[in-house]
From TrEMBL:
Binding site for Zn(2+): 597, 601, 699, 703
Protein name: Alanine--tRNA ligase
Cofactor descriptive note: Binds 1 zinc ion per subunit.
Classification via SUPFAM superfamilies: Class II aaRS and biotin synthetases, Putative anticodon-binding domain of alanyl-tRNA synthetase (AlaRS), ThrRS/AlaRS common domain, Translation proteins
Length: 906
């Protein structure tokens, strides 16, 4: 192990000496030194959790090392270890901790970064935490004490005293307010506590006294819990949560001015520069990368890690953050002069920065990651130029120079039509010294959303917070629904609630045991019934799992005539915690869902087999009557490919075969080749569904016993849902038979109508008929044109006058339609231009004249004049006007009785 000379108070080093001593401590070395140190001091090393926080629906991303341990702070007894250490992947690009806008413009901000941390769930004290951290810095890393100082919360006398005990003099312990030294996860509910922070003196003369000090480690004394209504309560035991940004610490240890100059970014920056050189773009070779190089490097790391954890670009929630990050990177690339897709060329450089094997997902999922990035790049580059041109136009507009504000409609158009995330528009504006009125943009967005045009919405607003109390009270429902013999069983209510959601009244309950499936994984929840001991039946409308081990049923009276609130009161005595009930799952629906769930696995395997590539599942929906499967693939599938997949599934399922359910360790499952969805969270022991020799997938859903039940299988559609993501909808088993029946039902009638012997003959006949119709339409068109030109129709026109303009009023044959009348009107004004012409056909009236010959009236003025004296409406132009009369005109008599007087009236 590389060791440097022992340093401490009294041995200050010059910057040069410092760099010489420490520059060899690489980031991978830092990772392992940290974990080894804490392991040596009794901590269990824990692998980084996913960037998608599976245990916390209030967060968009894992944004601190403590997130995966949140439950253990609340219930330390459930933690499998008393203290732990980790290097956690973190993302700060949404919610309270959002650094997206700072990236590139400051030395230290990142969207994706790694957090080194040590945690105690009642295992050790505040004093231990301070001692462990201090020793790690000054003994293990041998940082000189004279370049360190700490802050404590101004009311934390204990913390202050503990630092003094470590030998820190008063001038090195700074007291700060709660805004600096009280840490919480977000603005809402969660564990929190006072903290002490350790700072490093960068000795950078270009920085102010304040900025010279770099925060390197935050030790949080997790002792409190903030409730949803903002009250602080005590956690059951005092816990410790510390976090040290790996990139920052690396910059200290490598003597670099900022994180982007450390080994973690070196390769990526080199990759970007090589890319520029290959395109003959002049490259600035300064040690400090430019803002755009920093943005690309940071965002590239973020996008790859996000995709490797199963996030795919979309217009919603996490997927939208990913899309924004990719688009911002592309705009920065454009600023550097790169106009083509290039990001995936950086992938080998990214891997060089993580070659210690700490994130195997980067190599395992490399092909999929690049595939997704490339598709997204191609999609955005088609509109980026057009959007930028629009913005440049705005910057050049003289009437905007005094406000230098981008009109909100433009920001919205850029977002809606050109795919510019709002923050990208804002960034470009800020670079030019312009602004965007984000409030006005938000209002516009809201208006659009209400009009139903807007698709952006957050996917983190699940109404699960309601059940936090049930979780805290440890209300658990054992799921028994994998066992088919228990789908109709005795059970007991363990919690009930009635509440209003908007105008709706909801009754929810937890029962134990619970045969109703509601565990997610794309499979729709079971429905069924709960019968109370007074005989009243309540329908199970929905099932959800708001927390680990908790299943909540949403119920309503089965009798639609019974009012929910009244029924709740009437059945109250039998509808409370402790009441016995009979729980019955709707078998038809459950079996349908099982068929389609196993069929989804078969489709997943079939796609891989036929497309010969590793696709990534991007979502799925398993319903009783059909399935939907989203996956990443760059182009539409051909009809041949779809047929081949369909055949593949049908050939395997027709011969039948049992499915197996196995519980095994995650490592065994993955090494046996089981497919795992990146975005799912798996425990140490996982459930694997196997169709022997065909498919093996990690899955918590319910499945058929024998795949024969999936036959027949039919793909109904294959469409695009987002750039690089395809969607297949399919049906299997009885639903498929039903689908074929419905599709075939009208065919005999169709054949009879077409006088066809079979469907093939039918298609030929229909084709011929359609061609004949087209030809007939054409002929009809010619004939009516001829007819319109063929002089007077049967009835002679009635002649009249309006303000010296001679008028001819014609009755058009009742069999002829409006387009004919219009043609006739045109012919009349062209051939008899000295007259104004009125044409009537029952309720339709038209006026036509040649304005070059009739100048004192227009077609519109004549029609309007008549309509002042007879009932109807309409209008038009100088040469032509059209209207509708309330009373039809069918004879010359009618004309003389109503139209002529209307025309001549004053
Ligand atoms: N949770 C604290 C932070 O994120 C310490 O890990 O800073």
């Amino acid at each position: 192990m590389y060791r440097i000379g022992r340093l401490g108070v009294g041995s200050p080093l010059t910057r040069k000496q410092w760099v010489r001593h420490l520059q060899q401590l690489s980031s991978p070395e830092l990772r392992s030194r940290f974990v080894q140190y804490f392991e040596k001091h009794g901590h269990t090393p824990v692998k980084s959790a996913s960037l998608i926080p599976h245990n916390d629906k209030t967060l968009l991303f894992t944004n601190a090392g403590m997130v995966p341990f949140k439950e253990y702070f609340l219930k330390p007894g459930t933690a499998p270890y008393k203290s732990a250490t980790s290097v956690q992947k973190c993302m700060r690009a949404g919610g309270k901790h959002n650094d997206l806008d700072n990236v590139g413009y400051t030395p230290r901000h990142h969207t994706f970064f790694e957090m080194l941390g040590n945690f105690s769930f009642g295992g050790y004290s505040k004093e231990d935490a301070i001692r462990l951290a201090w020793r790690f810095l000054v003994q293990e890393l041998e940082l000189p004490v004279d370049r360190l100082r700490v802050t404590v919360l101004d009311t934390d006398e204990v913390g202050y005293a503990l630092w003094k005990k470590q030998g820190l003099p008063d001038e090195k312990i700074v007291r700060c307010g709660a805004e600096d030294n009280f840490w919480s996860m977000g603005d809402g509910e969660g564990p929190c506590g006072s903290c002490t922070e350790i700072f490093w003196d960068t000795q950078d003369p270009s920085l102010s006294e304040e900025d010279r000090w770099l925060e390197i480690w935050n030790l949080v004394f997790m002792e409190k819990y903030r409730t949803a209504d903002n009250k602080l309560t005590d956690l059951p035991v005092s816990c410790i949560d510390t976090g040290m940004g790996l990139e920052r610490m690396a910059s200290v240890l490598q003597g670099k001015k900022n994180n982007f100059q450390t080994d973690q970014f070196l390769h990526l920056i080199q990759g970007i520069r090589e890319n520029l050189q290959n395109r003959n773009i002049p490259v600035m070779l300064s040690e400090d990368p430019s803002a755009h190089e920093k943005i690309i490097a940071d965002h590239f790391r973020a996008m790859c890690f996000l995709i490797s954890d199963g996030v795919v670009p979309s217009n919603v929630g996490r997927g939208y953050v990913l899309r924004r990050i990719i688009r911002r990177a592309l705009r920065s690339a454009k600023q550097l002069g790169i106009n083509e897709p290039f990001l995936t060329g950086l992938y080998p450089y990214l891997l060089q920065g993580f070659n210690d094997g700490s994130y195997p997902e980067l190599t395992e999922r490399g092909a999929s990651i690049c595939n997704i990035v490339q598709n997204e790049e191609a999609a955005f580059l088609t509109t980026l130029d057009r959007g930028l041109a629009l913005l440049n136009n705005v910057f050049a507009q003289p009437n905007l120079q005094h406000t230098k504000q981008i009109p909100p409609q433009i920001a919205f158009q850029l977002y809606d039509t050109f795919g510019f995330p709002f923050d990208l528009t804002l960034n470009i504006a800020l670079e030019k010294g312009w602004t965007v009125d984000m409030k006005a943009v938000e209002e516009l967005k809201e208006k659009q959303r209400q009009m139903g045009k807007e698709s952006w919405k957050s996917d983190s607003a699940l109404d699960k917070g309601r059940f936090a109390e049930w979780r805290n009270k440890n209300i658990l429902s054992r799921f028994t629904g994998y066992d088919r013999t228990l789908l109709d069983q005795e059970s007991q209510i363990v919690a009930v609630d009635i509440h209003k959601k908007g105008k709706k009244t909801l009754v929810t309950m937890a029962i134990d045991p619970c045969p109703f499936y509601g565990l997610g994984g794309g499979q729709v929840p079971d429905s069924g019934s709960v019968t109370l001991s007074n005989g009243q039946e309540w329908h199970v409308v929905d099932v959800l799992q708001p927390y680990e081990g908790g299943l909540v049923l949403s119920v309503a009276p089965s009798d639609p005539k019974r009012n929910i609130e009244k029924s709740f009161e009437e059945d109250r005595e039998f509808l409370q915690s402790g009441s016995l009930i009979r729980a019955k799952v709707d078998l038809d629906k459950r079996e349908g869902a099982e068929v389609h769930h196993t069929a989804t696995h078969m489709l997943n395997a079939g796609l891989r087999s036929i497309l010969k590539t590793d696709i990534v599942q991007a979502g799925s929906m398993v319903e009783p009557k059909k399935l939907r499967f989203d996956f990443t693939y760059g182009k539409p599938l051909t009809t041949e490919q779809l047929q081949a997949i369909e055949n593949w599934v049908n050939q395997i399922t027709i011969t039948g075969g049992e499915t197996n359910v196995k519980m095994m360790s995650l490592t065994d499952a993955v090494s046996s080749g089981a497919i795992a969805a990146f975005s799912e969270k798996y425990g140490e022991t996982v459930r694997v569904i196997e169709v022997p020799g065909v498919s093996r997938e990690l899955c918590g859903g319910t499945h058929v016993d024998d795949i024969r039940r999936l036959y027949p299988f039919k793909i109904l559609s294959e469409t695009s849902v987002a750039a690089g993501t395809r969607r297949i909808e399919a049906v299997a088993g009885l639903s498929c038979v039903e689908w074929y029946r419905k599709a075939y039902e009208p065919v005999p009638d169709l054949l009879k109508l077409l006088r066809a012997s079979d469907t093939k003959d039918g298609v030929a006949k229909l084709d011929k008929t359609l061609q004949q119709t087209k030809a007939l339409q054409k002929r009809l068109e010619t004939l009516t044109e001829k007819l319109a030109r063929a002089g007077e129709t049967v009835v002679h026109p009635v002649e009249a006058q309006i303000n010296d303009v001679p008028v001819r009023i014609h009755i058009v044959d009742a069999d002829l339609d409006i387009p004919f009348m219009q043609k006739r009107a045109r012919v009349l004004k062209e051939s008899q231009g000295e007259w104004a012409h009125v044409l009537v056909n029952k309720n339709t009236i038209m006026v036509a004249l040649d304005p070059s010959q009739v100048q004192t009236e227009t077609a519109n003025s004549i029609l309007k004049h008549m309509l002042r004296h007879i009932k109807g409406g309409g209008g038009g132009q100088k040469d032509f006007a059209q209207g509708k009369l309330a009373i039809p005109i069918t004879s010359v008599q009618d004309i003389e009785n109503s139209l002529v007087p209307a025309l001549t009236a004053q």
